[in-house]
């Protein structure tokens, strides 16, 4: 089954939002920054070399949190960044209204990372709204500019907005999630009016 706008067994004011992206891009940090309930998490010692290079522990299954925004109760799901757990991201996308694709701009080749997530979630991204959130933009080794991500998306047939995000800043995370929720509602209104 493809993604749907609302979680089918709950009230219409409930949305599921999923966070995907590479190891260390800040998915876990994001959910912890905005969740109104203690985040349920599955962080363990990392095994993949790329993950270990970035940080000692990593998400292996999921994170879960809740936030209320714009009259909506949002269920927030964080996915593992390590490739061998990619199947979890697929499972967690099921029934979600929108996606935040997070890319660590300090990665050696962030556009390759972006491409991996675009291709992996291509079917989802064809149907549902997403925001590309670029983190670690403040780091000294930052080389890739926002406009380069934007150009890459356009050249590969994707039209998602690109935003800079510091996952540690609650207000910035809320701004990204708010934009995503408004896009979900805009598309839903469009579907209903046709
Ligand atoms: N400098 C900087 N650090 C960040 C930013 N976003 C997240 N972090 C840090 O990056 C580290 C990895 O974040 P984490 O949430 O574990 O990444 P995940 O693998 O995507 O879940 C944490 O220490 C965060 O505090 C950012 O925009 N700038
Ligand atoms: Mg994590």
Detail the topology: elements first, then pairings.
Blueprint: E1 14-21, H1 27-34, E2 43-45, H2 49-54, E3 57-59, E4 63-69, E5 72-78, H3 86-93, E6 98-104, H4 110-120, H5 122-127, E7 130-135, H6 146-155, E8 162-164, H7 170-192
Parallel strand pairs: 1-5, 1-6, 6-7, 7-8
Antiparallel strand pairs: 2-3, 4-5
This protein binds guanosine-5'-diphosphate and magnesium ion (MG).
Guanosine-5'-diphosphate binds at residues 21, 23-29, 55, 58-59, 81, 135-136, 138-139, 166-168.
Descriptive labels:
single chain; about 190 residues; alpha/beta; Rossmann fold; six-stranded mixed β-sheet; two-stranded antiparallel sheet; 7 helices; about 35% helix; disordered N terminus; binds guanosine-5'-diphosphate; binds magnesium ion
Explain what the structure shows.
This protein has 7 helices and 8 strands, in the order βαβαβββαβααβαβα. With 194 residues, the chain is α/β, with parallel strands linked by helices. It has a single domain, classed as 3-Layer(aba) Sandwich (Rossmann fold), CATH 3.40.50.300. Strands 4-5-1-6-7-8 form a 6-stranded mixed sheet, with helices on both faces. A two-stranded antiparallel sheet has the order 2-3. Helix 6 links the parallel strand 7 and strand 8. The chain is globular and about 50 Å long. The N terminus is likely disordered. Bound molecules: guanosine-5'-diphosphate and magnesium ion. Guanosine-5'-diphosphate binds next to helix 1 and strand 3.
């Amino acid at each position: 089954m493809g993604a749907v706008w609302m979680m089918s067994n709950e009230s219409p004011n409930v949305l599921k939002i999923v966070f995907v992206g590479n190891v260390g891009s800040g998915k876990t940090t994001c959910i912890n920054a905005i969740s109104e309930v203690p985040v349920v998490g599955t962080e363990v010692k990392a095994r993949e070399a790329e993950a270990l290079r970035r940080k000692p522990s990593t998400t292996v299954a999921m994170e879960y949190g809740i936030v209320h925004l714009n009259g909506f109760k949002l269920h927030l799901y964080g996915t593992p960044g390590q490739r061998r757990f990619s199947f979890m991201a697929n499972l967690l996308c099921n029934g979600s209204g929108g996606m935040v694709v997070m890319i660590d701009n300090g990665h050696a080749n962030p556009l390759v990372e972006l491409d991996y997530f675009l291709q992996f979630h291509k079917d989802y991204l064809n149907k549902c709204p997403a925001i590309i959130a670029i983190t670690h933009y403040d780091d000294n080794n930052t080389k890739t500019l926002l406009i380069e991500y934007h150009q890459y998306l356009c050249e590969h047939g994707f039209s998602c907005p690109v935003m800079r995000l510091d996952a540690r800043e609650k207000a910035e995370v809320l701004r990204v999630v708010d934009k995503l929720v408004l896009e979900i509602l805009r598309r839903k209104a469009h579907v209903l009016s046709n």
